[in-house]
Amino acid sequence: MQDVIAQTAGKGPLIDPFGRAVTYLRVSVTDRCDFRCTYCMAETMQFLPKSEVLSLEEIDRVASAFIRRGVRKVRLTGGEPLVRRGIVSLVDSLARHLGRGLDELTLTTNGNQLAKHAEALAAAGVRRVNVSLDTLDPDRFRRITRWGELPRVLDGIAAAKAAGLAIKINTVALRGINEDELGDMAAWCGREGHDLTFIETMPMGEVDEDRTDHYLPLSIVRAELAKRFTFRPTDYVTGGPARYVEVAETGRRIGFITPLTHNFCESCNRVRLTATGRLYMCLGQEDSADLRAAVRRSPSDADLDAAITEAITRKPKGHDFVIGRGGPRAAVPRHMSVTGG
Ligand code: SAM
């Protein structure tokens, strides 16, 4: 009862209508990216004008409001977070909450700018980063990312490791594109000491291809990997949607994020802030709340707190991604780069 009263007043923990506590905020700090991964973006993307994007100070204000309300984990993403000018100063600033409500401040990156920023991120208090990497073949890498150079990303990963950051590799499983090297990716991660998470391609945003062609259920990937590796059950959780196994041969973990074959909504603890300050309460639903208006309306946080409280009352039970439903069209029109992957 105390919680309900506090929440109504814009102060208490964030509990959604299904009793789930919101403890994880993902923040897209920019919609821009220095790659154009074929399943993620169209080659020519229209990016947002600067005036629509939250300033670093505004992002800090919103994230801090969430942390005051019980968010314990913040992940900066994009777009590509490391192309946002001043990103390290934002990390530095948010790091003041570590140990004072915030347990973890982390990033998801394509690794392209990681060599430049790894040490500063580690010095600020970042302990882990997720690096998206779908292939270890340079030609394939260029084809998938359209613009990327694999050696540069591998250098970034090496720099992050040297700076003491734990690295988790995120790999989207793509039929006909990287399905033949997923075992090799697992072996490489094992050798390098990285955990690995496989992700199913999600029908988000129009791209130049039909995603149905490349959709690869992770049940198949897992069965193939199990022929090469011995999986041990583990109850390891990161607060994210992945379900993990431990690989006996490498001692590392492999996670599976299966939004299409296994709905991960029942334990959802997160919300997503876009670069323009829209709060999406579900990755796969259209409803959102405009926190930028609340932030810009008043220098006091009362409006912001009230807008957050109201938004959480609208967090839906889950999404209903179905690959191929309606053909090649996206289930939600937003690209992952808008909502923040
Ligand atoms: N630029 C950063 C990166 O590359 O990690 C952060 C943003 S990116 C949108 C985050 C993650 O979303 C990446 O791992 C990317 O592969 C994944 N992603 C993008 N579009 C996706 C889709 N339609 N289905 C599944 N994963 C997707």
From TrEMBL:
<dbReference type="Pfam" id="PF06463">
    <property type="entry name" value="Mob_synth_C"/>
</dbReference>
<protein>
    <recommendedName>
        <fullName>GTP 3',8-cyclase</fullName>
        <ecNumber>4.1.99.22</ecNumber>
    </recommendedName>
</protein>
<feature type="binding site">
    <location>
        <position position="75"/>
    </location>
    <ligand>
        <name>GTP</name>
    </ligand>
</feature>
<feature type="binding site">
    <location>
        <position position="202"/>
    </location>
    <ligand>
        <name>S-adenosyl-L-methionine</name>
    </ligand>
</feature>
<comment type="subunit">
    <text>Monomer and homodimer.</text>
</comment>
<feature type="binding site">
    <location>
        <position position="282"/>
    </location>
    <ligand>
        <name>[4Fe-4S] cluster 2</name>
    </ligand>
</feature>
<dbReference type="InterPro" id="IPR006638">
    <property type="entry name" value="Elp3/MiaA/NifB-like_rSAM"/>
</dbReference>
<feature type="binding site">
    <location>
        <position position="265"/>
    </location>
    <ligand>
        <name>[4Fe-4S] cluster 2</name>
    </ligand>
</feature>
<keyword id="KW-0004">4Fe-4S</keyword>
<feature type="binding site">
    <location>
        <position position="268"/>
    </location>
    <ligand>
        <name>[4Fe-4S] cluster 2</name>
    </ligand>
</feature>
<dbReference type="InterPro" id="IPR040064">
    <property type="entry name" value="MoaA-like"/>
</dbReference>
<keyword id="KW-0479">Metal-binding</keyword>
<comment type="pathway">
    <text>Cofactor biosynthesis; molybdopterin biosynthesis.</text>
</comment>
<dbReference type="InterPro" id="IPR007197">
    <property type="entry name" value="rSAM"/>
</dbReference>
<keyword id="KW-0547">Nucleotide-binding</keyword>
<feature type="binding site">
    <location>
        <position position="39"/>
    </location>
    <ligand>
        <name>S-adenosyl-L-methionine</name>
    </ligand>
</feature>
<feature type="binding site">
    <location>
        <position position="33"/>
    </location>
    <ligand>
        <name>[4Fe-4S] cluster 1</name>
    </ligand>
</feature>
<dbReference type="InterPro" id="IPR013785">
    <property type="entry name" value="Aldolase_TIM"/>
</dbReference>
<comment type="similarity">
    <text>Belongs to the radical SAM superfamily. MoaA family.</text>
</comment>
<keyword id="KW-0342">GTP-binding</keyword>
<keyword id="KW-0949">S-adenosyl-L-methionine</keyword>
<feature type="binding site">
    <location>
        <position position="108"/>
    </location>
    <ligand>
        <name>GTP</name>
    </ligand>
</feature>
<comment type="function">
    <text>Catalyzes the cyclization of GTP to (8S)-3',8-cyclo-7,8-dihydroguanosine 5'-triphosphate.</text>
</comment>
<feature type="binding site">
    <location>
        <position position="26"/>
    </location>
    <ligand>
        <name>GTP</name>
    </ligand>
</feature>
<feature type="binding site">
    <location>
        <begin position="270"/>
        <end position="272"/>
    </location>
    <ligand>
        <name>GTP</name>
    </ligand>
</feature>
<dbReference type="Pfam" id="PF04055">
    <property type="entry name" value="Radical_SAM"/>
</dbReference>
<keyword id="KW-0456">Lyase</keyword>
<feature type="binding site">
    <location>
        <position position="37"/>
    </location>
    <ligand>
        <name>[4Fe-4S] cluster 1</name>
    </ligand>
</feature>
<dbReference type="InterPro" id="IPR013483">
    <property type="entry name" value="MoaA"/>
</dbReference>
<keyword id="KW-0411">Iron-sulfur</keyword>
<keyword id="KW-0501">Molybdenum cofactor biosynthesis</keyword>
<dbReference type="InterPro" id="IPR058240">
    <property type="entry name" value="rSAM_sf"/>
</dbReference>
<feature type="binding site">
    <location>
        <position position="40"/>
    </location>
    <ligand>
        <name>[4Fe-4S] cluster 1</name>
    </ligand>
</feature>
<dbReference type="InterPro" id="IPR000385">
    <property type="entry name" value="MoaA_NifB_PqqE_Fe-S-bd_CS"/>
</dbReference>
<feature type="binding site">
    <location>
        <position position="132"/>
    </location>
    <ligand>
        <name>S-adenosyl-L-methionine</name>
    </ligand>
</feature>
<dbReference type="GO" id="GO:0061798">
    <property type="term" value="F:GTP 3',8'-cyclase activity"/>
</dbReference>
<feature type="binding site">
    <location>
        <position position="168"/>
    </location>
    <ligand>
        <name>GTP</name>
    </ligand>
</feature>
<feature type="domain" description="Radical SAM core">
    <location>
        <begin position="17"/>
        <end position="241"/>
    </location>
</feature>
<dbReference type="InterPro" id="IPR010505">
    <property type="entry name" value="MoaA_twitch"/>
</dbReference>
<feature type="binding site">
    <location>
        <position position="79"/>
    </location>
    <ligand>
        <name>S-adenosyl-L-methionine</name>
    </ligand>
</feature>
<dbReference type="InterPro" id="IPR050105">
    <property type="entry name" value="MoCo_biosynth_MoaA/MoaC"/>
</dbReference>
<keyword id="KW-0408">Iron</keyword>
